[in-house]
């Protein structure tokens, strides 16, 4: 309790000194000294209770005042948002109207209809204005580009389940445009749309084909894979694809699994995204990285199940796979769009920047380090042709935000929510006192050049795999890829991210300070 005038005459032992306290002196007529002391202490106690009570009343009054003030400001804010919403809605209705009339004038696009799927893709790409309209009405992407067969015969010819992605919004209907990040309202710049809202996937037709990818050499994973395959086939009537190795394992268990499909070569792998509606991974983060690496282009939604420890990208516990898959196959699903980096190695001997080896897509990071050399690496770094710095140390990590909790974190980089579109620039053991990690915007192109005067080659590795030597004169060019990895969330992007850093890293875990002790009031 705070020091107070009322108890300022209390001595060190906690009792009132008779010489200082006239009130105490007036009771000196009582014969027994013990009774007197008892009375003294009960008076002090009731004083104490009164003080405590008045403090409590003051706190309640303060809280009530704050609540009233908060309510008033919340009401004002709500009114302002409502006004903005009405404005935006009116603007969108006007735009919609314009689009409709434009369409009538153009003969409803019928004249532009093309007969092959390939042409249809080109049509979508080329007619930017039209695709804008399709996006603004249907959300992020209407999945048109993944359709094949005759576009006129519509859903009967679909080989893949079509779905719709949209930003989640609180209202029933969102009329907002996906590209409308900044709006100009009466000459003032306002942010109309957040770039990283929770994304929701809604199936427009039922998923039919599932690809199951599993961590190798694990008996528990093999058993779960067999059980899940049977359940998906018998209960959900789905087609199942697995890796050739897994098909053999399943057939060793029983010939029942002969319905399971697989592929023969890389060409068939490159076409998987046109057949598969959903990818299920059984393993840890490494299996999610493996799944991502199989898709060099678009990636179907991935449902990552963790076996054993909770991974950072595997929020689904395998024990409850039936409930999770039931709800995922039904939809809608909250999705994290995990950005990937596309990396090109440009050799010194190349005649032009465009003469590169096959690009490599990474979900976590690309690392350029000193490999087995004991010399410092010397890496010249450029960002959109501006010189950034020269890394002298063990190396450099260019990481996605999904990879921010992996190697980059170990090298001192920040942890970033996976839905934030950025590139982390994290040095490994820089021999300098002032080299802090950076986070760069998603639209930049980074170039890491091995100088001609470097004492040794550098080594690039991609998601911890596929090491490539970079000789003096070679460069690694890296930018954000077009094709993210959509992973299903257990709850939503933010909840899953926070849970993974709490449970996976014990982030900021500390014993709570006890209540008693010195305090400021
Ligand atoms: N010093 C380090 O921390 C270090 C060193 C090398 C590689 N790595 C990481 O390992 C990754 C390859 O993983 P792997 O499973 O194939 O190899 P692995 O089996 O060697 O596992 C590496 C560990 O990193 C974890 N991990 C992977 N991706 C993660 C992510 N996005 N967030 C948090 N943790 C993550 C895995 O769960 C695992 O515990 C690389 O991409 C790299 O990020 C880390
Ligand atoms: N289908 C696959 N084929 C080949 N290799 C794979 C496959 N799936 C995973 N791997 C590799 O196996 C290794 C271990 O996988 P994973 O990280 O999933 O398991 P884990 O190490 O047990 O998980 P955790 O680190 O979360 O405990 C990784 O290096 C990964 O690249």
From TrEMBL:
GO biological process, one term: NAD+ metabolic process
EC class (word): transferase
Coiled-coil segments: 64-91
A Pfam family assignment: NAD_kinase_C
Superkingdom of origin: Eukaryota
Molecular-function annotations in GO: ATP binding; NAD+ kinase activity
InterPro entries listed in its UniProt record: ATP-NAD_kinase_N, ATP-NAD_kinase_PpnK-typ_C, NAD/diacylglycerol_kinase_sf, NADK
Keyword set, alphabetical order: ATP-binding, Coiled coil, Kinase, NAD, NADP, Nucleotide-binding, Transferase
EC number(s) reported in the record: 2.7.1.23
Catalyses which reaction(s): NAD(+) + ATP = ADP + NADP(+) + H(+)
UniProt cross-references to Gene3D superfamilies, sorted A to Z: Probable inorganic polyphosphate/atp-NAD kinase, domain 1 (3.40.50.10330), Probable inorganic polyphosphate/atp-NAD kinase, domain 2 (2.60.200.30)
Family listed: Belongs to the NAD kinase family.
Alphabetical list of PANTHER family matching this protein: NAD KINASE (PTHR20275)
Full protein name: NAD(+) kinase
